[in-house]
Amino acid sequence: MADANSLSPQYAESVAREHWSIDSRAQALAGEVDRNFVLVTARGDRLVLKVTPPGDHRQMVECQVEALTHLASTPVAEFVPRILPTREGQSVLPLELDGGTCWARLVTYCDGTPLVHRGDRPARFLESIGRTLGRLDLALKEFDHPGAHRSMNWDIEHTAALADDAAHILDTSRRALVERHLERFNTEVVSRLAGLDRSVIHNDANDHNILVKNDAGGEPALAGLIDFGDILHTVTVAEVAISCAYLMLDRDDPVGDAAHVVAGYHAVRPLTTVEQSVVFDLVIARLAASVLTSARRRHLEPDNEYHQISVQPVWRLLERISTLDRGRSTQKLMDACAPATAPVRTAREIMAVRRRSVGRNLSVAYSEPLKIVRGHCQYLHDESGRRYLDLVNNVCHVGHCHPRVVEAAARQMAELNTNTRYLHDNLAEYALRLTATLPEPLSVCFFVCSGTEANDLALRLARAHTGSKEIIVLDHAYHGHSPSLIEISPYKCEGPGGEGLAPHAHKVPMPDPYRGPHLGPYAGLRYADEVRAALVEIEGGGARIGAFMAESLIGCGGQIVPADGFLTAATNIVRAGGGVTIADEVQVGFGRVGTHFWAFETQGVVPDIVTLGKPIGNGHPMAAVVTTPEIAASFDTGMEFFATFGGNPVSCAVGLAVLEVIEREGLQQHALEMGERMLAGLRGLQERHRLIGDVRGLGLFIGVELVRDLDSLEPADTEAALIVNEMKWRGFLLSTDGPHHNVIKIKPPLAIQSHDVDATVSALDEVLATIG
Description:
alpha+beta
């Protein structure tokens, strides 16, 4: 009879042949308790025979087998071994050997390389490990077995019970370190585990038991999870903490790697706040248990140096973790759970998905695109943690993720969000607060979700009031992406892929006082004469004017401040012809110009219709149209106006918060001061660098036009693109615009500070100097 402690491959082959009718060649595999053999059949198929030595193990083995049988019909089946019954139908085969009864079972072979041998661990891969562990624990939630309710050294809840083994740690400083961790675990952590969710878990998802393969792109992908020998009923959160403990070994950013695993786990099996708060403590507990167990084994087997070699990475991590701020590390893991994240992909992977699954005419900024993962105030952070000063995002008006705006949205979302057919205070309050910022008679609001919707609705209002579709627009204007707006936006319809202006749209020159057809002190009036000529043309064709639509400050046209007097004169001409004026403030409203709350006020004009978007919700999708009672009455034709999400309680809560922040933080005055500082700095650069032809703007709406020749005004478009990319490498995000793509636009969140302005000017000075 064979000896259970020295089972041979030949014996494994005979067992497989006799009980499973499988002819194979066996090769021994390593195992802490079980004797394991990989069996290779003549066809090249591989299986694993596991034999547990004699002892009180039957219930534990049966627990493993029943757990794997249970998992075979769950979403994680592809990642775990499958039990193969004997030809007699037995899942667990008793083998009578010298020394007692052993327990054998045959499982499928999980193909892959142990993770411990892979150094490349991108964030997406780490998250996939967490997600799979989350799915595993959900699958095991309804599973239970008496064999999982056992006492064992690897039960993380009872780590403090290993304290006596600290005496076997020969290095006194290391021993003291572990004893401190055990004391704190016993006094501060154990009590917090009492009320946590408990279930059966794998309990040992370490870097030897996690198997990896290459995906189609050569990136690591999860292949399997093996060795259910430590399966246990304990606190469920221990699953992810134990895995993190091993995945953090010898890593450059161990807590960062753990955060990706936790994020993936939380996305599938949401962790409670208390569970989130103890993950880092449980990581330390597992590391402590590992070094204590190794010390005991060394004491029992002093000649076995393997125990000391294998535990060295654990000691290194435990010592490193002891130098970290425990509160910050815990918070980093908690931050990974809020909100639950989408799958993490590299920038290259995201670009591949976009090319395959997203319309290709959705553009990406910069020659080497950025993957931005976090925003705060005036800054954006990429996936590596690098910070960039955002100088172009006029959407997050009061600053990225402003806490007051975020809190208002979250609070209202948790309470109620529905449509405007029900009464709610937020809609009434926001309408009153918004119209209070506008001059009379602008006093009637319509709420929608985007600037495009707002401008489209403005066209309907104008047509209902005047009975005419005829509209005058500026050259290079852009008002939105719906068909009704594309066909009146020269920036789009006269560009690549465009079909030209609609017959009812009439284009006049952009009132550009720098390179337009009319220059000098009377340029504004000359540009207004172009509007008069368009009106005459409309009337000469037997029609009458419906509307004149213009951005109060012109964005896509090149950050243009209209020539003085243009908007007032043009408005008077249009009204005299029976038309209405539409001021597009989608980009420039809400105090950005500094001197006034609305950009149209800088020219002393009151439009008939105003459209609002972008900054209105600080990134939340909301927009509005405000008009006069007279025009609103003309629109009330009997056809209901309704936008499913327009004016909902959450959007109005966000809008109210934005108005409150602008007022409380004095952001309009701040925009004026920061804008004047930026303009002064840029004009100083203009004196030193001939590439700068013009610096223009109001408040924090600024354009820097680059030219190769100050007389011919030849556009320096290539240079502009180069500058933008060079500034990105220095941590400053800019972009270009204008008909010739030679205008650097600057329109940052109003949270920008003086040191940001000075740093921008200094960096731009350096870049310009390198270009010449």
